[in-house]
Design goal:
The chain contains three helices and six strands; from the N terminus they run H-H-E-E-E-H-E-E-E. The protein is an alpha+beta fold and 140 residues long.
Length: 140
């Protein structure tokens, strides 16, 4: 599924090019994934809690695929540490197992991450290797 998400991103980028707003890419990616048969939700409201109490601070997830994968989209020149931190925070708050960061910049760029709830850690993975205890086969 992760590879389909990145593949859909490649299709969107090759069709639309770069330089558009993040919202345009978000909607196009959602359409592309739905055409592939995936269930997608855009602009998902994420409430936050402190000691069981609902806080006023809320986040909005760009895209959630099949209720398992958080997709954070950017349309920037370069991915920065704060973009990754945003995705990491979403994974920790939602407890979703996988996160994908896609940048629709001049060249399409993506990063994939695994969230380990037991250790409260986020680990980078790519097609060639995984860093951590999980096998990439677990996420196909």
């Amino acid at each position: 599924m992760v590879y389909d998400i990145v593949g859909a991103g490649i299709e969107v980028h090759s069709t639309l090019g770069f330089g558009l707003s993040e919202g345009v890419y978000e909607e196009a990616l959602s359409i592309e994934l739905e055409e592939m048969g995936y269930e997608c939700y855009t602009q998902v409201d994420l409430p936050t809690y402190y000691k069981g109490r609902l806080m006023e601070k809320r986040f909005r997830l760009d895209l959630v695929v099949e209720d398992d994968i958080v997709v954070e989209l950017k349309a920037v020149e370069k991915v920065l540490p704060e973009h990754r931190a945003q995705l990491f925070n979403y994974l920790r708050l939602t407890k979703k197992p996988i996160g994908v960061l896609i940048n629709f910049g001049r060249s399409l760029y993506s990063e994939k991450y695994i969230f380990n709830e037991a250790e409260n850690t986020v680990t980078f993975f790519n097609a060639k290797h995984t860093r951590g205890a999980h096998s990439l086969d677990d996420f196909e």
